[in-house]
Specification:
CATH class: Mainly Beta
Helix content: 10-25%
Largest sheet: 8 strands, antiparallel
CATH topology: Jelly Rolls
Number of strands: 12
CATH architecture: Sandwich
Shape: globular
Number of domains: 1
């Protein structure tokens, strides 16, 4: 009797895009709550679908414990995901930081963050079943054959709904487009966003691509 031939197959994601997430656990202190209220009361700018604080350098003077929490995980992202050579002395530091307030029926239009390496969002007040939508940067390259999948998975979808809750921190490459769909509740959504840039030696001297950033 001939044994039935069963071919072995292997399917694996290549060139994945990192989405880093964690949760602070520690509740907002009364001081932090007052600082957040103060930042909002200082004034907000109208965005396409929401508002963002006029103070766009919050971490320079306020919310220092949240800044330390975010910076610690930025450092971890750099070490575990980017993995730069130690002799390059590369560091990521926070540049601008601002509050977002999303009122009922508002959202965040699809966008990315220019002049930044890694962007982050720290969630201060979230909604039920809240999420941020991340878009596949390779979508247009894949669209030469477009069909609606019967089953969605990581290989055929062009968006990912990342669930978020209060005190969550997410980090992702700044070039990745993301959005938040308009909310359908009666409550406000509040988050703190920030950008980062790099200092140290990037590139390679022997390849004539070295740049020193400080």
């Amino acid at each position: 009797m001939t044994e039935e031939f069963v071919p072995t197959t292997k399917l694996e994601p290549i060139f994945p895009v990192p989405l880093y997430s964690t949760n602070r656990k520690l509740e907002l202190s009364e001081t932090e709550k007052k600082e957040i209220e103060g930042i909002i009361s200082e004034g907000m700018n109208k965005n396409v679908l929401n508002s963002f604080s006029k103070n766009s350098y919050i971490f320079d003077t306020k919310l220092q414990e949240i800044k330390e929490f975010c910076q610690g995980h930025i450092n971890n992202y750099l070490e575990k995901v980017i993995c730069p050579m130690k002799e390059k002395n590369i560091e990521l530091y926070i540049t601008q930081s601002w509050l977002n307030v999303t009122e009922p029926m508002q959202g965040h239009h699809k966008h990315n963050h220019a002049n930044s390496i890694i962007s982050g969002v720290f969630y201060i007040q979230t909604l039920e079943n809240d999420s941020i939508i991340l878009h596949d940067p390779n979508y247009f390259a894949k669209s030469f054959m477009y069909t609606i999948p019967e089953i969605h998975h990581e290989y055929n979808t062009n968006v990912y709904h990342a669930p978020v809750k209060v005190l969550d921190l997410i980090l992702f490459p700044s070039w990745m487009e993301h959005e938040v769909r308009p909310t359908k509740t009666t409550e406000n959504r509040v988050s703190l966003s920030f950008n980062t840039f790099i200092e140290g030696f990037v590139g390679q001297r022997e390849e004539l691509s070295e740049v020193v950033l400080d």
